[in-house]
Write a sequence for this structure.
């Protein structure tokens, strides 16, 4: 949270009761920022991390997660999951995000790694859902393959997920294609599997995430904290910003952390009930998330779709938590 002098402060002064959250991720930089936002927000903790191929092949995703865990001292379990979508071949975002899906303006994650907890993300998530004293929320930041596999293998666990908060899809234009957002087009069949299982899905799509922007000044503020982690996060954030323009002068949409902020800062993202389906067959529209707003007249609502984001609140929650990580 920015102070009057432009420095960064922690987002919440008084810790509320702890709320454990499972995160499913394909671990690019904005995924890392979202995980750090959860870990750095008082009252929240990461119960476990399941990894899925998406931004990069699974081996790269695993490497990123284990290096991040060593760098930031994560103690929660990390499980490798699906190496490809339910149907077809894996498409990655490496052409945009770099080979390691974490393009940087300087430093990269140190090479030291922690150990992978298991290679059975679906089983680990199933065990956690069964052990939780009450239904839980899952935050998904990549293709929904792991979640779909969970529901195929353990359909009885669908009621144990009170909400699946997903950064993916779009209620407007796409980014990977004219019609489809990247996380959606990698595995559209998995979206429909999740919806068919009756899991309450909250979709934070491109159109909402693009209302929240970060720029080079935000990266400079992290580096100005004067810590090794602050410099690292500032360099990674600037590399992310440069996706919008190689000179770093353009602001970049904040994707995965906006979905995290929808949980961490209630009310920062507004949702509207709608009927959602993923297009799986169209020659030009595969991966499109088709939103029918006219409920219940045309169709029953099966999801909540994000419509607006309070950019100041989301930025404060996310950048404040990154400052916590930089100082730790």
């Amino acid at each position: 949270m920015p102070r009057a002098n432009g420095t960064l402060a922690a987002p919440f002064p008084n810790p509320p009761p702890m709320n454990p959250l499972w995160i499913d991720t394909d671990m690019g930089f904005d995924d890392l920022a979202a995980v750090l936002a959860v870990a750095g927000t008082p009252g929240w903790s990461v119960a476990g991390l399941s990894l899925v191929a998406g931004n990069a092949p699974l081996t790269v995703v695993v490497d990123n997660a284990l290096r991040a865990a060593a760098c930031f001292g994560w103690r929660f379990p990390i499980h490798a999951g699906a190496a490809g979508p339910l149907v077809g071949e894996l498409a990655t975002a490496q052409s945009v995000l770099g080979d390691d899906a974490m393009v940087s303006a300087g430093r990269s994650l140190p090479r030291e790694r922690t150990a992978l907890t298991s290679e059975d993300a679906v089983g680990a998530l199933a065990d956690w859902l069964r052990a939780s004293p009450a239904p839980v929320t899952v935050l998904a930041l990549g293709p929904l393959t792991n979640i779909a596999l969970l529901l195929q293998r353990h359909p009885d666990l669908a009621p144990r997920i009170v909400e699946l908060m997903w950064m993916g899809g779009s209620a407007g234009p796409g980014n990977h294609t004219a019609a489809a957002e990247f996380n959606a087009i990698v595995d559209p069949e998995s979206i429909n599997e999740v919806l068919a299982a009756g899991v309450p899905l909250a979709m934070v799509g491109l159109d909402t995430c693009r209302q929240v922007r970060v720029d080079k000044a935000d990266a400079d503020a992290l580096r100005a904290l004067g810590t090794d982690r602050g410099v690292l996060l500032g360099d990674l954030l600037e590399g992310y910003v440069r996706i919008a323009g190689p000179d770093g002068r353009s602001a970049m949409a904040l994707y995965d952390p906006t979905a995290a902020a929808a949980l961490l800062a209630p009310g920062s993202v507004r949702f509207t009930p709608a009927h959602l389906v993923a297009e799986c067959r169209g020659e030009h529209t595969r991966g499109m998330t088709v939103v029918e707003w006219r409920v219940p007249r045309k169709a029953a609502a099966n999801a909540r779709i994000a419509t607006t984001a309070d950019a100041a609140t989301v930025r404060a929650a996310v950048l404040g938590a990154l400052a916590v990580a930089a100082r730790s």
Q: What stands out?
A: The first strand starts at residue 19 and ends at 25. The domain at 19-327 is CATH 3.90.245.10 (Inosine-uridine Nucleoside N-ribohydrolase; Chain A). The chain is about 35% helix and 20% strand.
